[in-house]
Amino acid sequence: MSKKSFFVTTPIYYVNDVPHIGHSYTTIAADVLTRYHKLCGHDVFFLTGTDEHGIKIQQTAEKATKSPKEFCDEVAEKFKGAWRSLNIEYDNFIRTTDHHHEEAVKKVLQILYDKGYIYKGRYEALYCVGCEQFKTKSDLVEGKCPDHKIEPEERSEECYLFKLSAFQDRLYEQIKNDKFKILPLERKNEVLSFIENEGLQDISISREKAQVYWGVSLPFDPSHTTYVWVDAFLNYLTGLGWPEDKDSFAMFWPPTVQLMAKDILRVHATIWLAIVMALDIELPRMYFIHGYFTVNGQKMSKSLKNVIDPVALSEKYGADVIRYFILSEFPFGTDGNFSIKRLEESYNSDLANDFGNLIHRTIPMMNKYCNGVVLEPKEEDTIDEELKRIAEDSVSVLGELFDGLKFREILAEIWKIVKRANKYIDEAAPWILFKEENSGRLSTVMYNILESIRIITILVYPFMPETSQKIWEQLGMTEDLDSQRIPQDVVWGGLKVGTEIKKGVPLFPRIELNKENQSESLNCL
Ligand code: MSP
């Protein structure tokens, strides 16, 4: 039987901005999914990268008095650096200025042109450079783009158009019937009502080079460059090595889940899907639209100086703390507010008190009471049964929760085991058993505590790879943590008798809570 494959994508980020906590949110989620599916033994491909062409980048580079390429090189490195600091393990970081990508974009444009989906005409529309998107009148608030607070340009020019209108009915049908899934449900409905109310018009997909020189030339008319979104969407194909790498394409296409926020849902649900249909390849399986972050209640923006730098954040608190916090703080599909105060509170309660404490209590007890060696469990009773049942229940719902990208709920399930294990220690009181020289019961109790820690460590690995590795080493495990498999290695009883526990290292020392919200000190952007 062939292995299941899992292909996850993030949007490719514009290089006119440096990486911030919003980009990190999507990318961390993709990394957690990747690590989880690897633990399930699936073939996994995780694609991310940078979107480097178009008028917005051209103008930003000009303002910085740099050549666009030089400018893009610098910012792309910053994205890579941010992902390193957050422990992101992507399979490919694609840049739209990669030679292979540019050539493949030309190939697609030629195919679409030859099939008659691209034609020359005139286009009149409103365009917001901030979004690099066309706008309808109903999108505007008091005549301005609500996201960028600027009046869109009225464009009227000769250009090449893509026959988006030809795909309206098929698109509507596929989305409505969940043949192509958009989650959460309200986002699906939003797309359907847009198509119903506004309809899909053909769109301009080129600008004259005199206006936008920083882009991929149309192969059939080099005096035009292609619309940045068409170029950008194709990263999802070229990032797999398309068209040359046929094996990779056969193995991973179509994407299992494409992650993004609501800002770019409409373009993805119309133009990108229509291009896929026009190319006669399989549609992606699903989009998951996660929530949008505000910082202390406000939209992140350079002018408000509240843009949170993920590198500074992870230097201060550690990558795992950031990864845990942003996925546990609010449900993945809803908007949320980021604050350092909440991060520190959550750190102290969930990580220092619950998780860290469980490990810090257990390792010294093992060394003191059992000479650091896991002994054969001798007896069972109702307390043991409850701990075991909670662990088994959590493992049994995990797959479904991961399929629905319910990160917060997954962490809550894992924390049920953490909390129960802490309570079990209090109830079973190994220190009394030691004093009473009740060695039969003591070996059972210590086995149960360690077994729950072993299972927690595997389950938490996708979220907190660094911490779980440290715990794994303390547990004296000889196999690699990332070679563990879900579900077979999280079955109760997998801990081997005779395993030698190592000395503990501090994981989450409690931190002094900031009296005031000090997020400003982390705004280095
Ligand atoms: N370049 C396009 C995407 C092309 S994909 C073919 C683009 N880039 S972007 O840099 O603006 O990235 C937008 C995406 O970044 C969002 O959809 C989301 O994934 C992430 N986020 C950026 N800011 C965010 C928040 N404040 N909150 C949550 N996610 C955010 O659009």
Descriptive notes:
The chain folds into two domains: 5-291, 3-Layer(aba) Sandwich (Rossmann fold); 340-490, Isoleucyl-tRNA Synthetase, Domain 1 (Orthogonal Bundle). It is 47% helix and 15% strand. The chain has helices spanning 21-39, 55-63, 68-85, 99-114, 168-176, 185-198, 228-233, 235-238, 246-252, 265-278, 310-317, 319-328, 340-370, 382-403, 407-428, 430-435, 439-460, 465-474, and strands spanning 5-9, 13-14, 43-51, 92-95, 118-128, 133-135, 153-162, 181-183, 203-204, 206-208, 217-218, 221-226, 257-261, 286-290, 293-295, 298-299, 336-338. Strand 11 and strand 12 (221-226) form a beta hairpin. Helix 12 crosses helix 13, helix 14 packs parallel to helix 17 and helix 15 (407-428) runs antiparallel to helix 17 (439-460). The protein is elongated. The mean pLDDT is 94. The structure holds 5'-O-[(L-methionyl)-sulphamoyl]adenosine (MSP).
Helicity range? 40-55%
Class of the largest domain, according to the CATH hierarchy? Alpha Beta
Q: Whole-number average pLDDT? A: 94
Figure out the total of helices. Answer: 18
Gross geometry: elongated
